[in-house]
Fold this sequence. Notes:
- The structure is a homodimer.
- The first copy, chain A, is 32% helix and 27% strand.
- By secondary structure, chain A is α/β, with parallel strands linked by helices.
- Chain A has two domains: 2-272, Spore Coat Polysaccharide Biosynthesis Protein SpsA, Chain A; 279-357, no CATH class.
- In chain A, helix 3 (87-101) packs across helix 6 (205-215).
- Chain A is globular.
- The two termini of chain A are 41 Å apart.
- The A-B interface holds A 17, 296, 298, 300-301, 312-319, 322, 324, 326, 328-335, 337-339, 341-342, 344-345, 348-349, 352, 354, 357 and B 17, 296, 298, 300-301, 312-319, 322, 324, 326, 328-335, 337-339, 341-342, 344-345, 348-349, 352, 354, 357.
- Strand 15 (313-317) of chain A pairs parallel with strand 17 (330-335) of chain B.
Amino acid sequence: xxxxxxxxxxxxxxxxxxxxxxxxxxxLSLTGDGKxxxxxxxxxxxxxxEYKNIYIVTNEEFSDIISYQLPDVPTENILIEPVSKNxxxxxxxxxxxxxxxNPESVMVILPSDHIIGDKHQxxxxxxxxxxxxxxxxxxxxxxxxxxxxxxxxxxxxLGDKYNEIKNNCVFxxxxxxxxxxxxxxxxxxxxxxxxxxxxxxxCKSSTMLNSMSKYMPELxxxxxxxxxxxxxxxxxxxxxxxxxKFDSISIDYGIMExxxxxxxxxxxxxxxxxxxxxxxxxxxxxxxxGNTVMGNIVSIDTKxxxxxxxxxxxxxxxxxxxxxxxxxxxxxICAKDKCQDIKKLLNQIRNSNNESCL
Amino acid sequence: xxxxxxxxxxxxxxxxxxxxxxxxxxxLSLTGDGKxxxxxxxxxxxxxxEYKNIYIVTNEEFSDIISYQLPDVPTENILIEPVSKNxxxxxxxxxxxxxxxNPESVMVILPSDHIIGDKHQxxxxxxxxxxxxxxxxxxxxxxxxxxxxxxxxxxxxLGDKYNEIKNNCVFxxxxxxxxxxxxxxxxxxxxxxxxxxxxxxxCKSSTMLNSMSKYMPELxxxxxxxxxxxxxxxxxxxxxxxxxKFDSISIDYGIMExxxxxxxxxxxxxxxxxxxxxxxxxxxxxxxxGNTVMGNIVSIDTKxxxxxxxxxxxxxxxxxxxxxxxxxxxxxICAKDKCQDIKKLLNQIRNSNNESCL
Lengths: 358, 358
């Protein structure tokens, strides 16, 4: 039996002004096909699992719109974190729900806001991962063959080749490494021994909980208390109390970097974590002037710009390498290489009587 | 007796998207004080003439909003050109209306969309100009002492000093010269013999009509036909027929460059013809980062930008030397040194199903 866990609690500040406190990236359509990122994520795994085995972990604020966007996913499978505690508690929460039905069930853990190019290869790799993960203790991570010396991602250093399942190579993982500087990223790229860490994992729910018991005993204890209180009178009370106590720790740091039976399957299916507005030109492509435009745009001498309109006419003259995003109550004009400063901007907006625009 | 003629038929395309086909620059408030350019023009001459002696020449489309913006100017003083024919027919039309009341009346002819800094000096110079213009045949032009080697203006080459009236020097005009290239503009600036042609003139209505009779006889003949038909049954018919026949000629070309008794009074009262968005930083000044902003703007690393908001939040990050203008149905983002391409842009808008934004 296979379950899919989709992590959908992210705030997506980097896509302001289109993403908002109440409407983060995973709930937006950014690729021009009208489907939101989370809808595309569910659509991709439809051949793998039934809707009743798809779990979404999110927060109270996003749960209604997620139910609305994913009407086929049972409401009881939308798991609500009372507070965001990074990926380890998020995955732990899904694991106890799935284990309470069937501890042998293999969990495919996916982010809700990534872009996948070749869906067939993606599913083929997940299937090989599921095969591997059927063995107790095995945790499989999907790594992405790097296309350039990216400093914005963590990397997975491969060990020896372990197996080959349906044309997909399986490697032992040597180690997980943090986001490198450019020099290191270039070394990683040329060595051929490193993959981008995509944040996608496959393992049995029992394996995940056993690993947590070994490497994150506090988290595991809390999760067991939550599990034991399920369907009891004090379920909600125990859940809130225990979850609030959890440390904010990523699954990479808490489990992956320590567990022993960790494997990686490399994929080159065209992957993007859509980390900022500048990702859009990779995803949507550019026109002859290097522009990526959506909406009602009229341009003269405009090059390398990403422009997202919102009905209203946007006219550009003589500008280069800008990100322009228009929404009903806010317009962003940002140098393409300064998108990371949007977070700084949001602080300034917070302090400038524009709270409603957040 | 003194009359003021304000030319207000200009289309002001260069201030798109704030200026529109139906709302050109002279009817907009661009300086942040809430008053429109034409209101400021009238306000400046209030000490010189009564409202009943202020004439506005414009077109059918703008006349209602001009009446609305200038409730004290008698409606019958708002003269409507059936078609725009440059400044000579415009001034001729005003001249016959004024001459029909009093040919000895001195006309002060002003554009409707210029900025004046020192209003006292401005009025003092106009008064000296009026004194000079009381003599038959004298035409006085107000020239601006150049502040830099501007290639966007025509110049007036001064001849000998002719007179001094109330501390204002009056020079014979040697000649009018067209917009120069940069090299020539620099020569003009250093020579000290040249003034910017501001397009402001003072002369009696009889002098103007006599000059037209001499140098633009076709125009004069048509104007006389229009004047003769005033208050007759065929007034409208004659007016339309004659006006439509007029050549499109500027007063500079048609009269000033040829007439003999042409004088100039230099002014350094702080003048700007507000020719494009980039004028705004000269007029409104800049903040410590060189920005000129109006509206709800939040900026990070933004330098040398002119930003005009419209209620909605505009956020900028890492941009330089941009003009950003937001209106209800269109947003312009333009390199500051490319404002002249707005006209090109409007053609493109015309061809892109956005007619309503013109």
